[in-house]
Amino acid sequence: MARVEATGGEPRWLACSFRTRLILVMAWTMCLALGYLVPLEWAGSPQYVYYDEIKLAGDQDRLGSAADGGARLAAAAPAGDAEVPPNGAASGKRGGDSDARAAARRKPPPSQASSQGADAAASRDDGVRPGPASELLQRYRKQLPACAFDQQQQQHVKKRSWPPVWPHPHRYGNGTATVVVDGRQLRFTAPDGTSADLDAAFERYRRLMLPHTYDGLQSHDAASVQPTEATVGVLSEIVVRVANLSGELQMETDEAYELVVPADGSAALIEAGTVYGAYHALETLSQLMRYDFDNDSYFIAHAPWCFYDRPRFVHREILVDSSRHYLPVPTLLRFIESLPYAKLNVLHWHIVDRQAFPFHSPRRPLLSQRGAWSAAERYSVGDVAHVVEFARRHGVRVIVELDMPGHADSWCKGYPEVCPSETCRTPLNPTVEATYELISDVLLDFTGGQRGAGPVSDNLLHLGGDEVGFPHCWNATPAVARWLTQRNMTTEDGLEYFLERTQEIARSFGRTVVCWEETWFDLRQRLHKDTIIQFWASGLIKTPVKYGYRVLWCRQGEWYLDHLSTSWQKMYRAEPCETVTAEQCGRYVLGGAGTMWGEHVDTGVLHTTVWPRMAAVAERLWSPRAVNDTLAAAGRLRIWRCLLEQRGVGSTELKAQHAMAAPSNPQSCLDT
Predict the structure, then answer these.
(1) Using one digit for the tens of pLDDT, what is the confidence trace for 339-359?
(2) At a CB cut-off of 8 Å and minimum separation 6, what does 63 contact?
(3) Which residues pair with 172 in a beta bridge?
(4) Among candidates 319, 603, 648, which has minimal Cα distance to 462?
(5) What is the structure's pLDDT at 18?
(6) Residue 639 confidence (pLDDT) above 70
(7) Can the peptide bond before residue 85 be classed as cis, meaning omega within 30 degrees of 0?
(8) Average pLDDT, the chain
């Protein structure tokens, strides 16, 4: 709208009285706020259909035929980090939406653009789908304009609270029709073959998609629904095609998927390279389904839907701490169940620390007999293996951390010879072979002695290395001080000796070592090049990345969940790659983590302290970098938090000032 000038070149609204200007400002603010409200049709019945039109390049709308429900191509997220700088960096100001959109318009078509930045970690170009496309998928791509997102240039528009999926997908398209879901007859088919893992996922997601259907019965006969202008089809089949049915899960596992939901009642289609990509597709599909209480039926609005989705980062972690407070196995399993809802794929299990050693080592039983909080608060090897296997079936890797040489006081209770003295327990004693023999035995219990084996089969093993706290303890212990002097070593040299020996033990068992950032600052380029460095305090990843080290980012000011007053908005705005180039981000930044340290968290408050704030971290690690607007995310996050509650997972209100705060007032979950 053109600006209207008043006398003297002043805008007319500024020439009004102060009271009038105040009213105008308040009205304008309310209009902006209302634009970000939750789309109401996702909480109610299919009669209320909302659609925000998006124009494509060339200012032309693509309107589909009546058969596909009037599909329009929705805005798609940009492919790489370099295309739209975060927070309007290209314009030199924060939150420069107009400049970001202009940058998006200048990007080349997906067919010409290569995958850049952190998205390059997925090793896929925008036009590459997971595995060879089936005939059905090829037909859907041709027939449905909503699936045209890799066929022409697209304009990236930050839609308000859209789409109703968390985390935000890499690319998507949708229409305006509503398709009814036959809750009684809905079936999953796998024409290319299935597996026990995939079959279990079908049953799991049947329950999540159809929460009001019990024992396979539903009073409403979906087949009797007559297609209308609002409901044009009845969905009764979900076809799932997986290229590789192997259940192996490691950091390199492909998680990309493609999902198509036609509006005419044709089968929904999922295609993925692995079962884990299929899991993510099922989660996305489950978030689209709603239940209409008045008609006793399920439905999907805004069909047809097309998704091509993949993670920005391969490592999307949540840390839990079972040393400060013991977390029983059922607590861990219930928590793991919630992680796929946000497409998180790593549980970092900080299993021991100075306070307690709850792991019962068959080779070194005194560690838990004397180091656990109590005889009952321990984990057997079978417990650990069960947690790891349960997590794998849900698409979650488990990485165990054994923090050393600091944070290891609990080791001394069972084997005091590995500590400097009775009064000075850590860092662990680097001068005696007993220390390295004990560490070797414990690592062998976890790893089975070879890559991809043992109760914890993940190829990554975290050895801590933070907050070592020397030189006081080593210098104050005559035997350690003498050992250092005899070898002409400083305490820093002694630490380097310890770290090199323990990391070599882990590598001999086929593990890639992960360590906290202090290890990098202690050793710098002397650190083994295969080591992955996790930055928690400084976030200074620029130098190690420059020298070719891989990193994880979880800076405490933003992503420490035990900082209970840190808001989800602050977590959402954090950017792991803010100090490195797009190329470095894609090559060396593996991802990051939200960390739930356990000083003040136990079974009773674990979920409510983690959720929904961890969802902000999850979207930052999954979605394209340009998806970073907290106002646009707020409505989708409210919908997703309501979904958590529907699934029985506790969470704190979005507007709470404290992560453990009780509900503020009687109200809908959509109002929190």
Answers:
(1) 999 999 999 999 999 999 999
(2) 70, 72, 145
(3) 307
(4) 319
(5) 60
(6) yes
(7) no
(8) 82
Q: Are strands 290-292 and 297-309 parallel, antiparallel or unpaired?
A: antiparallel
- For CA atoms 85, 88, 89, 90, give the dihedral sign: positive
Distance of CA 576 to the CA centre of its chain: 13
| 455 contacts 381 by C-beta, under 8 angstroms | yes
Using an 8 Å Cβ cutoff, are 89 and 99 in contact? no
> Would you call 55 exposed, middle or buried from its count of C-beta atoms within 10 A (0-12, 13-18, 19+)?
middle
Q: What is the largest CA-CA distance in the chain?
A: 89
List, by residue number, the catalytic residues.
467
Question: At 570, which amino acid appears?
Answer: K
> Cα 146 vs. chain centroid, distance in angstroms?
26
Judge if the upstream peptide bond of residue 167 is cis by omega within 30 degrees of 0: yes
Whether residue 267 contacts residue 237, with contact meaning beta carbons closer than 8 Å, is answered with: yes
DSSP 547-604: TT-EEEE--HHHHBTTSTT--HHHHHH--TTTTS-HHHHHHHEEEEEEEE--TT--TT
Contacts of residue 162, defined as CB under 8 A and 6 or more positions apart, other chains included, come to: 39, 52, 74, 632, 636
Which residue, among 200, 206, 144, has the nearest Cα to 181 in the 3D structure?
206
Other residues' Cβ atoms within 10 Å of the Cβ of residue 98:
9
Task: Single out the residue of 461, 562, 463, 575 nearest to residue 520, CA to CA.
Answer: 463
Supply 131's token pair.
């595995």
CA distance 443 to 436: 10
DSSP structure class, residue 442: H
Q: 82-91, 258-267, 480-489 — which is least confidently predicted?
A: 82-91
Structure tokens at 199: 């079959």
Q: What is the pLDDT of residue 143?
A: 86
Classify residue 214 by its DSSP letter: B
- List the beta bridge partners of residue 532: 514, 550
Measure the CA–CA gap between 479 and 404, rounded to whole angstroms: 20
Q: What is the pLDDT of residues 569-585, one digit of tens each?
A: 999 999 999 999 999 99
Token duo for residue 278: 């299929």
Number of Cβ within a 10 Å radius of residue 202: 17
